[in-house]
Amino acid sequence: MKITAIKTYAGTFGNRSRGLLKVETDEGLYGWGEAYSVGPDKSVEPIADYIFEMIKGEDPRRIEYIMLKLFQQFRFPPGGTGLAVMSAVDHALWDISGKAAGLPVYMLLGGTVRDRVRVYHGIGGNAKNVAERAHELHETWGFTAFKTSPYQVDIEAERWGRVCSAAARFFEDVRAATPDGWEFAFDPHARIFEPVRALQLANALAPYDPYFYEEPLRPEHLPAWSRLRSQMQVPLATGESLYTRFEFLELMAAQGADIIQPDVCVCGGLLEMRKIAAIAEAHYVTMAPHNPMGPLATAVNVHFAAATPSFKILEYVLPVGTEWEQCIIDPYLPEDGYLPLRDTPGLGIDVDEETVKDNEVVHWQRTCYVRPDGSTGYI
Question: Under CATH, what is the fold of the domain 107-345?
């Protein structure tokens, strides 16, 4: 079996532009992958074309060899855009390999360690909005775990003590309006510069038992993460901004997180995420993959979670009512708050290629916050 083509499809799905990728073979088998929306999404096609010249004619089942070849042949670290496309290629290779073997991908990873995959859903707004939406998601899909922002006032303009007290009142009100067994995680979205202020906010939320406290700081300075974790009373999570096992190894060696959140669409793909998971397990760190992406990314994550002991929970975005519903054939949907496993060969999901072709790209531009003094904040 040989790789004969890589096709890319750019379009607007959900809230932003996306890049989907199809790897074809001379035996008629094909696989799909999803690239992360790192920002300049039009870069997916030329990078995919560049990668194809490196791997055309290769056996798609030689995933370890192909991914090593890509890392080596790029020469310099490929960065976010390069890794996003490499990750999508990896997804497609696993999809092909599973189909060729007549097995779901999780069986190629050593088989299942769980029967279903727990998911959580993001919710925004005030306490009333969050509680009402959580009840709706529970009644329709069975969700019992959610994530929201702790910010209830303008953090760039208000005194930090007010930010913390408003967050505490917000969480207290959410707890009062929802069943005690439900989980709520909080995402400060790396908008806090001083670690001590991140600790203040975590301490304000701690009495109400957050599921985890996600990425309060920028990822670059690991000693700050190590110091913050050593002072925390709640589980500290991070990793969506890190690439490859090497960056995650540094984080875990510094004891900078209780939970890591690699994104299978940018960390290097499923093969790389399995290597990250092995390092995490050896450090007593659990995995809650970052997954604000589409149904293809979710499918890859389901197979990862099914076969990975250190997996904890998966971020999940419902495709219902979005453009994904027309483009993706039989996406994974939750039952009682979990995604059921499938025994379909490959990733167990397919793409309506004709519909994807008709989905036009609408330009999506990342922005950042502006502080009262005119300086920029982190998104």
Answer: TIM Barrel (3.20.20)
